[in-house]
Amino acid sequence: MAINPTYSFTLIGSNSQKTTLNFQGVEISDVDLPTELNAAAGVLETLRNELNDVTDANVDAYSFSVQGTQAVGGVPVAADVYEEAVLTLDITPAGEATKLASSRVPAPSLAIFQGASGPTRDIVDIADADVSAWVAALAANVLISDGESINSLVSGTRRTKRVRS
């Protein structure tokens, strides 16, 4: 595998004026993705250190991103990205009033719903192993809303987004 990271630096100057520098990195090809990502993080740190030496502005923020692709057999036959499952998540901080957030799953698999037709067609099966694994992966790796952790999956429904023409 190989990655082509993009490096981004936000610099802040006098009067809190900001500017951003973006650079397309050279290809990093190593034994596996974690090694390549670590190499990209090292490049980011090197660039930040060298940038600090040539600018009077402060490096306010810096990051790298990697565009991933998962080309599995081309375009799917029946995946409507305007249809989505909306998962309702409990993100209540300890000792506070209930706080909920939602997370979208575009073109949801029919297998994650309680039924194929009738009233259960639009209700996500929150006990489904794949849904549980997805929410667990989110809970372990991302923050929701304004920095809260995901506590649990409360419910889920199907909805269709309006198509812009």
Tell me about this structure:
This protein has two domains: 64 residues, no CATH class; 78 residues, no CATH class. It contains two helices and eight strands, in the order ββββαβββαβ. 8% of the residues are buried. Strands 3-2-5 form a three-stranded antiparallel β-sheet, covered by helices on one side. A three-stranded antiparallel β-sheet has the order 7-6-8, with helices on one face. A two-stranded antiparallel ribbon has the order 1-4. With 165 residues, it is α+β, with helices and mostly antiparallel strands. It is extended, with a radius of gyration of 21 Å.
Strand content: 25-35%
Query: How many separate domains make up the residues?
Result: 2
Number of helical elements: 2
The poorly predicted ranges are none
| Beta-strand segment tally | 8
Over the alpha carbons, how many angstroms does the gyration radius reach? 21 Å
Distance between the termini: 38 Å
H-E order = EEEEHEEEHE
How are the strands of the biggest sheet laid out side by side?
Answer: 3-2-5
**By helix and strand content, what is the structural category?**
alpha+beta
Mass-distribution shape: extended
Task: Tell me the layout of helices and strands.
Elements: E1 2-3, E2 6-12, E3 18-24, E4 28-29, H1 33-54, E5 58-65, E6 83-90, E7 100-106, H2 129-141, E8 152-160
Antiparallel strand pairs: 1-4, 2-3, 2-5, 6-7, 6-8
